Amino acid sequence: MTTKIKYLILGAGPSGLALATQLLRMKETSFIIVDKDAEAGGLCKSRQMDGSPLDIGGGHLLDVRRKNILDFVFHFLPANEWNRFDRISKIQFDGVELDYPYEAHIWQLPMDDQVAHLLSIMNAGSNRGTPMPKSFSKWISWKLGDLIANHYLLPYNAKIFADISLDELGTYWLYKLPNVSMEDTLRSCLSKKIHGHLPAHAQFYYPKQHGYGEVFKRMGAALGKNLLLNYPVKSLDVETLTVNNEIQAEMVISTLPWQELAADKSFPKQIKTAISRLKYSSIDVTYRPEKAATDSHWTYFPSPELSYHRVLYRQNLLAGAKGYVEETNTLRLPPGEISTHHNQYAYPLNTIHKPEQIQKVLAWATSRSIIGLGRWGEWEHMNSDVALEKGINLAVDLLQK
Fold it and tell me: Does residue 96 lie within any of the structural domains?
């Protein structure tokens, strides 16, 4: 017998859970949210490891800047159950360790290196007014100068996005990188403190006694019978909006990677082709029990000789926790090494043709009452606070129509 509902939400990660929660808050009960796993949370799930929780998707934190999202999250895990941190993150390369962001901490280098970096920034194409290049590699140097590009951003991105050549990436998404102001950099060198743009998560919250996944576990529990776990989506009939021949909806909201749906025969060939052109990277996280001598919350490692690209020091986030966690692109995992957790879908890649392909998929899906939501539904690399806000806003939009 087919269950008929108004809204069917595919995937119980942050955006799907926020959508479902907001629907329920607005008195809409004709919905089901499904997930293939036994626990809600998506990439933000946590598991016990060596006596403390470990976040299986790598580093997930709650940014302090969106008060509406803080209020939303604190409803499930109250504010007094979180610690607030001033971000400490670092970059290690060529035997040097700098605080992040790189351009604001050049003053930590020897004097000759400071001068060389200042000249490099001054000669960056963006500061000289030269035309913006179209290739990713040249754009990075144009934006930040050769030294920052070559020491950090180019090798780091080559590691994290090892699945493709860097010049297959577009430049349309790089607006997130700050302009490196010669004036701010010089002020930083003279005053020996940060000037200019502050990075994302400059201040953040992390639970005192839990992993970050505890928030989403509680959020899922609050949905009660509206949440259906251990329920993989095996088929989606786009003509009838029926999943697994069991649940039929008036509207489907998908937070799943489109590749997980496109095998269904009801997807037209041209849409399957567009989905096949959406690229992503897979990440493995590996727990190391050793104590690291650092006060950093996490450190970036651009050196090609090291397999991992980032290390998160949970000992500096969670009282009593041991060790640290390495993040490694799956293609760079050393032969024979078994990681603690494998994330097949970790980062959607901003390839040159992505905007065209995802727009084609979303336009077709929307015309059939299927909405893409969140990191994978919209194919955008977004932090959890952004994903939560997307879900909340979509619920409001749906119910106010």
Answer: no
